[in-house]
Write a structure and sequence with these properties.
Helix content: 55-70%
Largest sheet: none
Structural class: mainly alpha
Number of strands: 0
Strand content: under 5%
């Protein structure tokens, strides 16, 4: 027999789970739309940089507001095309691991958003160790790469997986040290408190006292997502990509995971170094009052878009590095820089350097 107390507990649990599910959908659905249209933005922006038009045929003529935005329906057309493509699984491949690998690649990129604060108080789970959670989630993604190469039963895919895993792990160390600097500067692992520690003005944000760590973090993020110019593992001139045997929607999930990780890296760069949801006009007498009505979510999205633009700019600008150059940059340049600047940062904190550590 169910007592009244048990029934109330069941209802409260059901309400909590339903509310959490709604919040998750509110985050994931716009995020996946951003992932889809980031592919269109990349093709358009790089096209303009190279004096091309980019996708301009697929149009959403049924929607009056975007009828004249030619190419706006391209991501939808790409998704429909991939849905109807055959998924070919190589003979003697481990079918379970072959299918689960793309999920392990995109899952952590989505799960990490549980602790991302979009504005003051706008966060799904406000935990005190949010930074550790982010590091844990981003570290899991490498397993998807390794499993994809192993399960494909292909020497090329396995070699590509090993190269990609080595690259990801190498730059993850530099990224971790860069985030240690943020932890020291903010004296907190909570992402909301890290943003609050940058309150004041643009000059109070951590990009200035932690400039070397900011540059190392962002470039390491480009390398960890296998983006150009660090895309030797999956570049057009290479035949040893870890997903060389994938097709159809399984390949599409790897493709989406790359763009989801780009957005995640940009969001973390915004929170750790660029003031999160804080207004760039804060502390400027006239402009602060003029833009006081703008919500923090707008500034957060604008800063993330600004960081994403550099991902696309790098791809259109720099030639692809050799693999030995990539590994040398990670181990012999970035890691020593972060270690030295952590010591310098410790001296800044000890001396109470204003205005950040006063």
């Amino acid at each position: 027999m169910i007592t009244e107390k048990t029934e109330r507990l069941i209802m409260e649990t059901f309400f909590y789970l339903a509310t959490t599910l709604i919040y998750i959908l509110i985050i994931v659905i716009p995020l996946m739309l951003c992932v889809a249209y980031l592919t269109l933005a990349e093709r358009k922006i790089i096209g303009y940089m190279q004096v091309r038009i980019g996708p301009n045929r697929v149009n959403l003529s049924l929607l009056p507001l975007i009828r004249n935005l030619r190419g706006f329906g391209q991501p939808i057309a790409d998704a429909v095309k991939l849905m109807f493509k055959e998924i070919v699984i190589p003979s003697n491949a481990d079918r379970f691991l072959f299918v689960i690998a793309p999920i392990l690649a995109i899952g952590p990129a989505l799960a990490a958003w549980a602790v991302i604060p979009f504005a003051d108080g706008w966060v799904l789970s406000d935990i005190n160790v949010g930074l550790l959670y982010i590091l844990a989630m981003t570290s899991i993604g490498v397993y998807g790469v390794i499993i994809a190469g192993w399960a494909s039963n292909s020497k090329y895919a396995f070699l590509g997986a090993l190269r990609s895993a080595a690259q990801i792990v190498s730059y993850e160390i530099a990224m971790g040290f860069a985030l240690v600097g943020v932890l020291m500067a903010a004296s907190s692992l909570n992402l909301g408190e890290i943003v609050s520690a940058q309150d004041g003005s643009v000059l109070h944000w951590f990009w200035l006292p932690l400039l070397p760590l900011f540059l190392v973090y962002f470039i390491s993020g480009v390398a960890e997502t296998n983006r150009a110019p660090f895309d030797v593992v999956e570049g057009e001139s290479e035949i040893v990509g870890f997903h060389v045997e994938y097709s159809g929607m399984l390949f599409a999930v790897f493709f989406l995971a790359e763009y989801a990780n780009m957005i995640l890296i940009s969001a973390l760069a915004t929170i750790m170094f660029l003031g999160g949801w804080l207004s760039p006009f804060q502390g400027i007498p006239l402009l602060e009052t003029l833009f006081a009505w703008v919500p923090g979510l707008f500034w957060f999205v604008a800063k993330v878009a600004f960081c994403l633009f550099f991902f696309l700019w790098f791809r259109a600008t720099f030639p692809r590095y050799r693999y030995d150059q990539i590994m040398r940059l990670g181990w012999k340049v970035f890691i020593p820089i972060t270690l030295v600047w952590i010591v310098v940062l410790g001296l800044f904190i000890l001396m109470k350097l204003p205005p950040w550590f006063a």
